[in-house]
Amino acid sequence: MNKNTMKNKSQLAKLLATENIEVQENAVQTASFDVVNRILTIPIFKEEQKSKHVYDMLVGHEVSHALYTPSDSWKDMSNRSKEFRSFVNVIEDARIDKLIQKKYPGLVDDYLKGFDKMLKDNFFGTKDKDMMNYALIDKINLYYKSSKRLDFKFTNKEKILVDAVDKCKNFDDVLKLAEEILGYCKKELQKKPEVAKVYKPDPKGKKVDESETDSEDSKSDMTTDDKVSEWLDKKDEEENKDSDSDDKQKTNTTGGQGAGESGLPSEITSLTNDFMDTAIKGITDDQARERDYCELPKVDLKKLIIPYQKFIRDIMVYDKQHHNTEYDRGQINKAKLTTDKFIRESSNVVNYLVKEFEMKKNAKLYARASQDKTGIIDPLKLHSYKFAEDIFKKITTVPNQKNHGMILLLDWSGSMQKHILATTEQLINLTMFCKKINIPFSVYAFMNNHRETKDDYLHSGFKITGNSIKPDASTKLVQLFTGKQSKVDFTRTAQILHRAAMYFGGYYNWRRSDPMAEDMSVPSISGDYYLSSTPLNESLVAMDHVIKKFKDSYKTDKVALVTLTDGASNSMHHPKCGELHLKLNGKYVPAHSYWRDKKDFTSVMLKYLKKKYDLQLIGFYLVSKYRELQYMLNVPYGKEMLARKMFSKDKFIADHDTAYDVYFYVNSGTRIKNNTFDDNANTTNKRSLKKMFMSGMKNRINSRVLLQNFIKRIA
After folding, report:
1. Which of 24, 57, 584, 637 is the most buried (most CB within 10 A)?
2. What global pTM score does this model have?
3. In terms of Cα–Cα distance, which of 3, 113, 109 is closest to 47?
């Protein structure tokens, strides 16, 4: 569907939402309405056949059926003849089309232009045929579908019946009128069997004579409204007669199949309506995939999130049970000392970056400050009143700062093992910075290693319904750091996280080449916290609740959502595994599993969260070699060497063409540098020492890739 059609569809859906009706496109032949769930399903049309006005006209029409056609009464007609149902359908269409256009005047233009398009494309089978030769029911059908613009010539009797269509207030009126018109058509066929040719119209046939009228009609002096009212009253009287007379009347008007009438059709139906139904089926896309219209599951944060207190306690219990020897305790202590040393050596650089940040922030604030004169005289300037007019006090207005916050999602998957140590150190530095400048923050590691839940949603943090997507039931968010964490708990979490990173960084690397993991006995951690797969999508679903709670708790104006990962998310399952359409903000949007095309589930969720919470989205994609980026980056021709150099020198490449505000491809081999001087340097020259110091400080700052880029985004 083209852009304009989609836009219009969205606007129409917003209107119809007030009626608690959902409009869904799917791989079906005909439209249908689910009365219980209030879901209107319409066919998916072929791309080349799609028209904005036709689409909205058909949607409006079907919605009007849902609103105004009593479903029970329509079902009760299943035992009536095909011809009777055909007549009822034409008259009911005219009634509900009028009602929906009255309710939503914006649809009037769609009905006008939609009919013109359908007539031009021969949706009614009228091409090269004289519509004046059609039976009355087809004239009525075309007359009202054209919004009374087709210039049909009706006899006086026909005019009464045509005007009666306008007078139908409810479905009962429609049934009465359908009987009358069907009876009239049968009588006309009995009087003039040659009229049967209207059911197979001859384009060269003779038009209906304007002067051909019922003698009774021509003698009448009543107005059309009076005649319609009289007719409706007559039908009410007929319904009150005894059952034998009523049955006889029904037989005379609606029952006959015409089997005994030579040359007459066995059934009378609206040819134009039948042709339209067939034409609509012909433009439906029979190759279209079935669509799944799903909602987000409910989230129980208490079951989904493992607080940092439990994380610390679980590891302590595990160590007590599995690392209870003196040697093991010594190794655990050694790992703690390694982390403490790293934090201590990082503090100076982080403090330096904090001061730089505060200076930049204040400079920008005062650059936007304004001064206004007051009505109060400044005594210090009073002496200059003879030669200066500016003797009044001034007030400086500094724009209010926005209260920022950060939520970070850390990928705790198996593929992260080669990046995990460097990433963990970058993360610890980032949290140290946030603590020092009092930015509220929460850091979560997302994993699905808690297999005790399996597919048991009873114990999962996700509560699914019949039409919700099915997240991985074993998904957990492990809260690592938070702004409300005590210094003791922050240090304990950092020690455990850093130790885990050293363990995984060495465990999967048999060479143990990393100097931080050179000890072959880095203590393991509980299996519940082992590296697993990548439930990023599940985490983003959870963020819809986490962000709200975070903003309410910290009263933040602006929140930065940061993701740290080395690959795409696991696929999200849904009931039928068809083409997924996800309900967000009251409307359905495509959200498939193909990565990085801006309509994948991850991108759709990011856009949804950004719009809902006014987020700043920052993504860090960890990759060890530039060639691993080539299939993801659209580097302009001739810029390849520049990109390679940037990745090597700056340690990152920024991409602004994703669902994120900025997406950083980070050289994951970049370790935090804490040494100011070259260990091999041997000089006492002050100038050399100064140069070495400045160079060392620059390297120390540049090595903190995550922190540097985060500061740039929030400064």
Report:
1. 57
2. 0.73
3. 3
